[in-house]
Specification:
Elements: E1 8-12, H1 17-28, E2 34-37, H2 49-54, E3 62-65, E4 68-71, H3 73-83, H4 94-111, H5 127-146, H6 159-173, H7 183-193, H8 196-211, H9 226-229
Parallel strand pairs: 1-2
Antiparallel strand pairs: 1-3, 3-4
């Protein structure tokens, strides 16, 4: 008698950067899973009962696989890597993996701390916003230097790329865009945006942004489809 593989469930949300990270990783590995989107209005309220039960922070992403219940996008990365080592989302060798993990951590906890004020901030010239934008630009230059001799941040494609791609996407939405001073980073972002797993996750996010009249970066406009056409006379920002 053959055993039935338990269904994997990933709880995410339409504007969850960290949920998108986990989902992209699962799709890059070709895993079968059920995606459960937590409702979003102006915040993730009411909280999904399973998210509340599993994660003390009451946040997505949450992954359930049989008896296993875990949260945090990095912990989900690690589980998926152990579950299905090929294709690998960490480079080979302890030093290379450690470097990739540091880059992933910095995307989540260092770069994100520099984001400008919220996406609807009406004072683009305020001093705190200028400092945030300058910090983001400095971080972009750091990533530009890393990419000067390689296609991906840790050499081979890895979870570090997934993490920084989503972090940069959100920074761009909030007013810290890339520009011509970082050509290697722009090429890297184009390559990331072309990956099928990335497109399948970002496309519904872009449509949600359009439908809720939130800013959409120019580099994502081609993913909007019919949602873009429904906003007559409006261009992505």
């Amino acid at each position: 008698m053959t055993s039935v593989e338990p269904t994997m469930r990933i709880y995410s949300g339409p504007l969850s950067m960290f949920g998108a990270k986990a989902e992209i990783a699962a799709r890059e590995k070709g895993l079968n899973f059920e995606l459960i989107m937590v409702p979003f209005v102006s915040d993730y309220e009411p909280k999904h009962p399973e998210v509340v039960r599993i994660n003390p922070k009451q946040q997505v992403p949450v992954l359930v696989h049989g008896d296993l219940e875990i949260f945090d996008s990095t912990q989900i990365f690690e589980y998926l890597e152990d579950l299905k080592p090929v294709p690998a989302l960490w480079p080979s060798g302890p030093a290379a993996r450690a470097w990739a993990r540091i880059l992933e951590l910095k995307s989540d906890e260092v770069f994100c701390a520099h984001y400008p004020a919220d996406e609807f901030a009406k004072e683009p010239g305020c001093s705190c916003r200028r400092r945030s934008e300058a910090s983001c630009l400095a971080y972009y230059r750091e990533m530009e230097a890393i990419l000067s001799d390689r296609r991906f941040l840790a050499g081979s494609f890895s979870s570090a790329d997934i993490a920084f791609y989503m972090a940069q996407l959100f920074a761009e939405r909030m007013g810290a865009p890339l520009d011509a001073t970082t050509p290697a980073l722009l090429r890297w972002r184009d390559a990331m945006s072309a990956r099928p797993a990335v497109r399948s996750v970002v496309r519904p996010m872009v449509k949600f942004l359009y439908s809720s009249k939130r800013p959409v970066p120019d580099f994502l406009a081609d993913l909007a489809g019919d949602a873009a056409a429904s906003r007559e006379g409006q261009r992505p920002v």
